[in-house]
Predict the 3D structure of the following.
Amino acid sequence: MKDVYNSMSLDSVAAALCKVLGIDPPRSAAEANPILSNIGSAKKLVMYNPDAVGLEVFQKYTALFAPVLAKTTLALPLSCVMPSVTPVCFGTMYTGVQPEVHGIRRYERPVITVDSLYDAAIRAGLRCAIVSEPDCSLADIFLGRDMDYYRVEGGLDAINAKGLELIDKYDVLTLYNGNFDSTMHKNGPDAPASVEALRRNVETFARVWEACPEGTLVGFAPDHGCHLIDGECGSHGLDMPSDINIVHFYGIK
């Protein structure tokens, strides 16, 4: 059977998010995704970024996503970029350009110098922050901006508590969770520990949603998918539907 890839690209997200916020897009961003652009208008943006939660994971565990589906109004199937690894994909998600333009072509963490959603928001006078674990490629590749970076010690609960605490302080807030990705690599995507990590991602999104003020665009926005490899471990980075196909969920509270 022929592999099927989602037709909409991850590079269409950055300009669409800016359009919903009513600000100019990153300077080189691809055309705004027309579906996301029409979700409405918002005053604030909170992006919850769970690592490696691909479309195939959602399809297998749809019932687990009930809290996400209940709160959001848009499910947006997308194709991420190659190689399907974290800094490459988040580079595209937040700049709106392909890897050959933002400059990250493998798993490495140089600071991206092309214009990003964060730069566009800062120009518009919006306050931005990224909340993550201390060793986080998403935060590393967007260093050097006039924004705040919270590299939180103490594990997932501490990271998410800090994110919830900061929602009211910022106009554009990114909260990164790498727990599913870490567990999946060690145990495989369908191991009980991985499914539990996924459940925690969904639970965290629900808490984030409840903490957001009215008029906030809230996204459940993974970077890439994953697949099972020999030894009952998980991996990603290949040009295959399980790694490339993702789905984002958005709603305006």
Summary: The mean pLDDT is 97. The chain has one domain: 10-252. The beta strands are 44-50, 74-79, 128-132, 148-151, 172-177, 216-220, 227-229, 233-235, 245-252.
